[in-house]
Structures are given as C-alpha cells and as structure tokens.
Amino acid sequence: MALTIHNRGRHPEIFRATNHADFDRSWPTFMQQDPNARLYYSELDSVADYVLLATDGDEPVAKAYSTPFAFGIEGREDLPDAGWDEVIRWQHDDRLVGRERNAATALEIVVLKERQGTGIASVMVNALRDNAFRLGHQVLYAPVRPSQKADEPETPMNEYAFRVRDDGLPYDAWLRVHVRAGGRILKVCPLSMTISGTLAQWREWTGQPFDTDGPVIVEGALSPVLVSLAQQVAVYLEPNVWVEHRKS
Questions:
Q1: Residue 97 CB burial class (10 angstroms; 0-12, 13-18, ≥19)
Q2: What is the fold, at CATH topology level, of the domain defined by 3-193+240-246?
Q3: Per-residue pLDDT tens digits for 207-232
C-alpha cells in the first residue's frame, strides 16, 4: 500500500472531487451533532494548509484535520479540560481577532470504514505531525478519542487512559498509535465534547428508546449518556486524552 498525502491548501481540487459523505459512515450519527464543529469545518479555507487527504491510487481513503491556535497566553496556560470543543473555540477566536497562533492541534483523523485496521491511521498521525512541523510549529497537540474505550463506557477515563500492556505501551490501540509516533500522554480532558439533544433526537440518532432516567449506554459512546425524562433531554459528555507530539 503506497499512500499519497495531499495538502488541501496546495491541492484544493482533490478535496472538491472527494465524496466526503463516504467518510461519515465511520462515525456514529450522534458524534456528528457537536455544535462547535461548524466553527471549524465551515471555515476550512482559512486553515487549508492544516488539512490532509490520503489516496491509495485514485481512491480517497483517509482525511486528517488540524488547526493552529494561540497557547501560553493569559487564560490559556494549560490545555483545556473541555478539550476538542474548547480548542475549536480558541482557534476560532484567534482567527477573528488576528491573534498569533504558535501551536497546532489535531482535531480529526478519519479512515474509510472498509479500510480501517490496515495501518492507514498511523500514516495519518505521522503526516499531521510532519505537516505541523513543516508549518513552523514545535508541537502538535491532540485531544485523542481512545478507540477501544467504547467497549467499557463505565470505566473512568482517568483509569483507562493510563492503562498499559506488559510492553509498557498504552492498552488502547489508538493511544498506542500516537505513542509509537512519538506522542506523550499528558492528561484527560473530561469534557472534551458536549452533545445534547431532545430525547426524540437521541432516538433518531441511535435507534434506542431512551425511556429510562439516568445514565444510558449507547453504542460507540465512550461514557454513558445522561437522560432526563422529566426534561425530555439527554446530554453526552465525552472524555478525551490530551497527547503531545513535540518536534525533537
């Protein structure tokens, strides 16, 4: 398998010709409902150099998204507990006010569903690292969504994220990819994504009845969804893990 990595800033025509709906099948429907997403994905032209597409021959097989942001300024001394959501808000504000952006963060790596498990994800992690460093950044952060955490949604992320195998590498396969690429696990971001909706919406997104109060296990979710029958709403608070990739 010889993949070709395309940069959106350099080759926008390849991205325009790609059927991006094919990649949506890789994510559960409820994961596509985060309202913060449009602050980033609706303005990709402004961060085109931070967006990559991998092709195998003529077939698009993976995409990787990142963005620059300002870090280490007042109010941003630490990576946020609100992870993915907050760093998207930060980069959006930075762009609006013209603030200098001295760091970069990965936001999404998605591989076509039928091509998952073939090593493409590892290629994309390294491609995002190399691209961030090429663009002049000394560090690439990533609010990582551990891929196997959905198998045990009731396990606290603080326990799961730092679990290791006998060889010392992370137990989780996706965290393992990042560490093998040179990443370092920093901390859990417990409120990385907040997805809320009416019970009717959650039923549509998941096909589940949502007819009981309290925590509900949803396929693909890293933690239980919190349900209120009285209010007819449910909220999903997804924990992620901050990983640092620093240029050596």
A1: exposed
A2: Aminopeptidase (3.40.630)
A3: 999 999 999 999 999 999 999 999 99
Within 10 angstroms of residue 120's Cβ, the number of other Cβ atoms is 19
Would you give the end-to-end CA distance of the chain in angstroms? 28
Residue 2's pLDDT is 84
Q: How far apart are CA 170 and CA 173, in angstroms?
A: 7
CA distance 59 to 2: 12
Instruction: From 221, 244, 243, 247, select the one nearest 234 (Cα to Cα).
Output: 221
CA quadruple 24, 26, 30, 35: dihedral, nearest 10: -50
What residue ranges do the domains of the chain occupy?
Answer: 3-193+240-246
The strand pair at 139-144 and 103-111 is best described as: parallel
CA distance 137 to 80: 19
Identify the three-state secondary structure at position 122. helix
**Residue spans of alpha helices (H) in 152-237:** 157-160, 173-180, 199-206
Nearest Cα neighbor of 69 from 58, 60, 80, 61 is 80
Q: Please state, in angstroms and as integers, the Cα–Cα distance from residue 10 to each residue in 60, 122, 127, 150, following that order.
A: 16, 22, 15, 36
Q: Flag whether the pTM goes above 0.70.
A: yes
Contact 61, 3 (CB under 8 A): yes
